[in-house]
## 1
Amino acid sequence: MSRNTLVFAFGVSFALCVGWIVFPRALYVQKRQPLTFLHKTHAEKSGIADCGECHTLRADGSFAGLPAMEKCTGCHSEKIGDSQAEATLVNNYIKPGTETPWLVYSRQPANVWFSHAIHVKLAGLACSECHSTYGESDQVRTYELNRISGYSRDIWGHSMSRLRRAPHEGMKMSDCESCHQRHQVEVGCLGCHE
Amino acid sequence: MSARYGMVIDLDRCIGCGSCMVACAAENNVPALQQATVRTGLTPIVVRTVSNGQEGAARRETFIPIMCMHCEHDTPCVKVCPQQAVEVDRATGIVMQMPQRCLGCRYCMTACPYHARYFNWWDPAWPAGMEKSLNPGIAVRMRGVVEKCNLCHARLHTAKEKAAAAAKREIDPTDYVPACVEACPTSAIHFGNLADANDPVAKESRSPEAFRLLARLGTEPKVYYKSKEAWVRDLAETNSAPRPEVKHG
């Protein structure tokens, strides 16, 4: 093998390493949620069985998203247990009456219009079809912020190549489109954009 | 059944107050820019004045609100767009403009026979504090893209969502009314589904007093006008019609 070939092979593999290993790491800022909220604990200890108990649809069909602090105060007006997260919740948010600044994994860009009511009530999708089993998890995921777009990594999905990804991984427009195509639901541009 | 949303604007009732323009700007987050002029500002609906060209006692004038006519057939802006940023929605007949996809070539502005398209010359800006009054259902458009009337599609979203909450697929027609229709103090603008033969607006569009601007182009616009005055109806098809003057101030 000539020296030139070796240099070329080294250059290609170096560039691939940078592109597939270094760049994805550099692209995302890792952020921690302000509170260690555990879905599993809430499901087991307080008997909350359905996502809709906290993540509600309002009467007009709009999605309330993450529950307001009022919902937490219902049980956590005083400390339950001695955990650090409990102390943070009560001291930093419940007593001063401020909302927790959650980092929303699935927040979409401003020009996206998505209706939970249509997907859940009319199409009958389960929450896990887009949000996976996060509702049953016993740990808080790291929130990864894309330095360039400012969006959550969940929009792209965790696999950089997007090959062999599970249906719930990725919330890009192409992911919406492929599901719509599978179910033969046609919407125009402004069906999902605003 | 797919709808064909359209309007009938009764010109004999229009008093030229401009409420529709204000309501449209507020609904669609149109920026309030000091430097915008009549030519360069964004007016998805604009009230113009036209006259019969006579002077003295014979002179007649009328106001005419102009907006996207939502052409159904061979839609000129759709045909010319190199980005496929415009489409005629199959379900509603609305000519949908996607500003985020637009590259700003303004070919559609040239193609539109009604001059109903506008270019964003500047970054959107509002006086301090006014951004709190923005409509959360409409994304703010960036500089360098073309926009136009989308028949207040955010209201259609809201109506769809409300219907879905009640597990219904069809929206309640009273839930979807564009802002200009709602704001008109003389109820000159009527909005409805032209595909529904029993819809009062569809019936009105078939009245002998109803007409469309430049209908001879064959683009099948879905905005109809209505007037008892023959000279107003004639203007709609005349090539040599006096150029509409824009009311200043």
## 2
Amino acid sequence: MDALLFMIFAAIAAVCGINLVIQKHAISSALSLVGVMAALAALYLLLGGEFIAAAQLVVYAGAIMVLFVFVIMLLNAGVERTTRRRPWAQYAGVPLLLVLFGTVALLVQEISPAGDNVIFGEFTKGTPLDVGRALFTTYLLPFEVTSVLILIAILGAIVLARKEID
Amino acid sequence: MPVSFPAGVEYLRILPEIILTLAGVLIMLLEAVWSDQRRTVFAPISLAALAAALWAAMASSYGPAFSSMLAIGGSATFFRALVIVVGLLAVLASSEYLTRERANGAEYYALILFSVVGQCVMVAANDLLMVFVGLEIASIASYVLAGYLRDDPRNNEAALKYFLLGSFATAFLLYGVAWMYGLTGSTNLSIIREVLLSSGAPSLGLTGVAAALIFVGLAFKISAAPFQIWAPDVYQGAPAPVSAFLSAGPKAAAFAVLVIFMVHFGATAEQLQPVLWACALASMVIGNFAAIQQSNIKRLLAYSSIAHAGYVLVAVTANSEIGAAAVMFYMAAYALTNIGAFAVVTHVARKGERFVSMSDFAGLSRRQPAMAAMLALFLLSLIGVPLTGGFFGKFYIFKAALDSHLVWLTVLGLLNSAVAAYYYLRVLVLMYFHEPGEGAEELPAAGASLQIAVYACAIGTLVLGILPDWVLDYASKAALK
């Protein structure tokens, strides 16, 4: 049952991801991205990462995507205009994509021990307690330094949006 | 489950970052509460904070900090001091420019300080997470700084190009980090090193792909070919003091990370040697041959910066302790020289950067003998003339390359240096043997802070050229570990 659910949500994520790229209208792409985020949240939940699943849904599918959609509507972005593709991009694109898929497949084969399937429900360290503990002990420094990153993003937005400097 | 809190000494090890962050926040707060008359105080505050951070970085003890997220060692201390000095010089070179452009805002100084924080985190990182967070802080600050004069279309173009291509490159780095984590089960560089050395190490082909993806992200930051396309447009479009900062600070930090990776990735990194070889050669050739055709001095310096990234990549390709020491020495010499050159350009460009074409430098020796002499010194150092830092920088790089049996790369690199001499000398000839053009304006004397920056760079360039042992001894010891 778990494996079946996993397959279904993985398929949804993949389909939404492809749709995101091929859609011509920005809003359709943004909505596909919501689909990807939600499907990923379901995958995390199936694997036992309950806190990450909730955060994924609340932060990405909720807050960030709403912001995306607002900005797209505010700027009144229309249908994407395509310019003529470079000839080499047309011919090399698909083979290179296949190479990428091939190496990713190799990677997955390499890191998954032979014949040992994922056991759903085995991983139980994804509770808010565990995540919080890791965040405030081992990963304390990256967590704190990220606040500088966010500060600088706000500062940058102010610089680029202000009326005049002096 | 026992919880260990960071010890006091670990806080001391990140004291430079703490000082700079607090100063950045302080400047933002002061801007909000103070009236406009006191704007001149932001530059002195930034300088004081950077000086304090420099002291803290030099005095810091060696060892890991915060669950081994950072590892302060000789190399980290060297590069932390270097990026802080770059910040100092950039602030000194900026304040007059900003007043001239009526843009002397607190945000500029806060952005520089935060960017230096990001670079400090990068060079001291012992965890892929810290590398990424530090790189993002440094990069986002750079994107905004490149577009700081928002009403200037050239600034806008520079910022947008830098941002779009930079985000794309960072995505590659992040993808590589994810691969590395998947293959080794850790983001900590010490653990990754152990796993890669152990008998159960993942296959070299896959770790090679991960390392190559990470290299793409870093190669963009150091503007190495074939990821150099952004550099000329950004350096030309960004405000001149910002170009000075961008061409020295973030570049040094990215090279520091590259050296850290070369050490920790072991055999995986060795496998990438042909790629590094090709990138080094392509950067030198593209940078130098494109620079010959430029008529804009900022664009010329941008292409020259691509070529210099190629020289440093030669030392990285050597992948030895001498190579690592050569990278450190060269980045120090290059940072001082390049900031000095851009500072002189900042002065000559005048309001709105109207005078940045090569012909505007004609007869500079008669209009401003001191500034012309300084620019001449910096150009000679970029060529690699003896008695300047650039000479010993190139010398150690090619020595490291020969020690690692990279004979062809050395020969091609030396030929490239000869090509480079042509376009640097062209500027020299213009300055000393040509009359000033018709439209040349009267140049007022440079402000005190700009002069301090230029002379400090000149003294540094000469010290590195006459007494290279001071820095080189330190760099060699730091590279040994």
